[in-house]
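Bit of a strange request maybe. I'm writing a small parser for structure token strings and I need a real example to test against, not something I typed by hand. Could someone generate the tokens for this chain?
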Amino acid sequence: MTETFTIRNYLRDIKLPFCPGCGCLTVISRFLRAVHELGHKDLSKFVFCSGIGCAAWIPSPHFKADSIHTAHGRSIPVATGIKLMRPDLNVVVFGGDGDLAGIGLSHLVHAARRNLDIAVFMVNNMIYGMTGGQVAPTTPLGTKTTTTPYGSFEHPLDVPSLLVTAGASYAARWTTAHGEQLKEAMKKALATRGFAFVEAVSPCPTAFGRRAGFKDVAEIIRWFRESSVPLEEAEKMTAEDLTKKIVVGEFVYRKISTFTEALYRTIREAEKSAETK
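Reply from user aminoacidic:
Good idea to test on real output. This should exercise your parser:
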């Protein structure tokens, strides 16, 4: 795109609800830049789905686009229905780690297994940020939350690796401190035929940062940079060495048949079989 990028071309004139320092603002900027660089002057070819949580407010009602706000953890089933009825549209899901990796994990895994042709962007702030600061499936080991005041005693879920195993076409993880890499991953996800997933590890100074011992958002961003380990290096490290590290990079990119293609092929075969009877 040679045309100058202007974020207001894609956003409604509505005040954004995010706390100062929230990574959702970076995610919005990176995503809309990705859309612009892919040649979309507007969002008329997109439909957005989101559940409940801070990240769910990213598309709805702020994007100038069709969007559906669903029940907690149920954005992917809604996105499935839209994609099957309108395979010509770019169907995109936004959600937090609690919404997608907690409440809606089964839907996320089965969408990857089916290789459903949608893009899912998970803003991982490592906590249930909107509902009181409870421990999440992605909370780092030993981190204090309202429900783990002595520190989390669970290992966090590695969502991209799980989705690679399930059958996703594309999976990547970056932090909001890796703005350019995050944008490029989003572009690749939007251009992928099949299930595409990008995790954006994001600061939450309000619910996560102060409980985890960070004095401000700058300190969290510094931690992101210092703790991030490229996937190629992580593969040579032990699980113990990777505790409290953030593995970043592209976990998989492959071209395989999509759920939409398989379904419509089956429908055509059934129709042809019915005609010959």
